[in-house]
């Protein structure tokens, strides 16, 4: 080893010296001492190795401190990102943002013991789903309810309980696939139920169901086409008519609603999405739906309906494998309570607020973002566009939005670099511009968005 490298190695500051740096001391107040010390050691070890393999002229302590700050900010793999795509229920970005009330209730339950499975009135063991049953009953006229870890699990568990080894009749036009390869025929096969298709892709009549019923029929099933539409020469059987047939034949009816919502979206222009209340009033025995899509809560699958069926499903041995924990229950309970007042639900549940936000309000936020970027020397323009609810909900329901378009010769490179800022920024590319959709950018995120773009645009490498 040459003398120059030996001297440089000697000049690498010690761990103790770095820990006394004022900027590092500030990190210790934000993180723990052990986390900061571990980051310091890792950065210094990498510097020594790099010095041995490359040519260096100087050791800069300030650069070392900045690298430590960058490294400790990456301590977790799962991290917040700024969603500038305009897709409200973005499956890849964690779907629904929880309401503040849900977050507070989760923290409250997480930091204490709770009556999760304890009946305070009787002073003995209780049932964990009592909390959800009561919350659901206050919103929907339904006999009973349970919750599992997602809607795929809700469909699977219901089929496995009520139709294992028996036939389930479904229209061909409703054999849907939701993201992540969740296909009704595949889930049905795994549940042990036997799929019996009726009708055609575009037309299914009541007589098709009636003629398919045999002694081995366990369920009539209707699946809401939440992520696509069939238009033109079509015909389908309503839930009410299917329920009348089921009642006459003594066969229960199940509806997989997919993305459940407790407000009537038709009042706001979304005509293809029925509310949970509307579906229940049609008379099905069991309805399943997601908790983290239009409902705006955490990931969960609701199973609601007649007590005799819900109780049977709850006693399935698989229920223990698919059940949710106290944090999910606390978040769902708090979210459901907001639905007692529709106006409050729209104001306080982020998913509903973003989907139903008036375009002019979005425009004001977009203008604010554009002006902020221009003040930083970044050329940006305001444009009208369309954004999507997402999450396999409200197909073709593009809603008017306003975006901030940044014209650049390398939009893909800009998008890539913004994925590495803190926090990462995820936008979309359109017409050779990097586009920031103001619909899904939170007010509190605007200063962070500005810093991220400033960091990328004025870095020596861009």
Automatic annotation (TrEMBL):
Residues 9-48 form the L-seryl-tRNA selenium transferase N-terminal domain. Keywords: Cytoplasm, Protein biosynthesis, Pyridoxal phosphate, Selenium, Transferase. One of its GO terms (molecular function) is L-seryl-tRNA(Sec) selenium transferase activity. It is an enzyme of class 2 (transferase). It is found in: Cytoplasm. It holds the Pfam family SelA. It catalyses: L-seryl-tRNA(Sec) + selenophosphate + H(+) = L-selenocysteinyl-tRNA(Sec) + phosphate. Its main location: cytoplasm. InterPro entries: PyrdxlP-dep_Trfase, PyrdxlP-dep_Trfase_major, SelA-like, SelA_trans, SelA_trans_N_dom. The modification N6-(pyridoxal phosphate)lysine is found at residue 293. Its cofactor is pyridoxal 5'-phosphate. One of its GO terms (cellular component) is cytoplasm. Its EC number is 2.9.1.1. SUPFAM superfamilies: PLP-dependent transferases. Pathway: Aminoacyl-tRNA biosynthesis; selenocysteinyl-tRNA(Sec) biosynthesis; selenocysteinyl-tRNA(Sec) from L-seryl-tRNA(Sec) (bacterial route): step 1/1. GO terms for biological process: conversion of seryl-tRNAsec to selenocys-tRNAsec; selenocysteine incorporation. Belongs to the SelA family. Converts seryl-tRNA(Sec) to selenocysteinyl-tRNA(Sec) required for selenoprotein biosynthesis. This is L-seryl-tRNA(Sec) selenium transferase. It comes from Thermodesulfovibrio aggregans.
